[in-house]
Automatic annotation (TrEMBL):
One of its GO terms (biological process) is response to stress. GO terms for molecular function: DNA-binding transcription factor activity. It comes from Planotetraspora thailandica. Pfam families: MarR_2. The gene is marR_3. InterPro entries: HTH_MarR-typ (IPR000835), MarR/SlyA-like (IPR039422), WH-like_DNA-bd_sf (IPR036388), WH_DNA-bd_sf (IPR036390). Residues 23-162 form the HTH marR-type domain. This is MarR family transcriptional regulator.
Length: 162
């Protein structure tokens, strides 16, 4: 069977066959869709609570940890920020009274970032807005079961399995 000229030209131009091109198109849709959705969700929180996306990430990490505190180094790892980037966001949150730095009683070299009472309130408000936005922008259009399924499928892919 002859391959159409347009297909041969496309393969030659990109070095990809049609299956590979289709795979790349699906990846592009997934990547750009997730980026757009994340931007919309973060904008919803920022508009209603006044918390920037990077600050929201810090507050969410702290909200999910025991005692709402985590060593600064572990916070940096969880966020994927540079040390300087984490420090900059933490400084802004500290200036706003949302977090505090605490020394570890067992190891004075270790510094924890911890939510203040006000920080706990703001973080809780942020999560409430984020949950409402997720329901409106994601769960309603997809349906709860489809959303759970997509989440489970994506979550099952561990970096070590690739």
């Amino acid at each position: 069977m002859d391959t159409p000229a347009s297909t041969r030209q496309s393969e030659a131009a990109h070095g990809l066959d049609l299956d590979d091109q289709t795979l790349m198109q699906h990846w592009s849709v997934l990547r750009s869709g997730f980026r757009r959705l994340t931007s919309l969700l973060m904008a919803d929180v920022e508009a209603k609570v006044g918390i920037s996306p990077s600050a929201l990430e810090v507050l969410c990490v702290l909200l999910e940890t025991p005692e709402h505190a985590v060593p600064m180094g572990r916070l940096t790892q969880a966020l994927g920020f540079s040390t300087a980037g984490t420090t900059k966001v933490a400084d802004r949150l500290m200036d706003a009274g949302l977090i505090e730095r605490r020394a570890c009683p067992q190891d004075r070299r270790l510094i924890y970032a911890a939510l203040t009472e006000r920080g706990l309130e703001v973080a809780t408000d942020c999560v409430a807005v984020l949950v409402e936005s997720l329901r409106r922008r994601v769960v309603e259009p997809l349906g709860a079961e489809r959303f759970r399924s997509i989440s489970a499928d994506i979550g099952s892919i561990e970096p070590g399995t690739i």
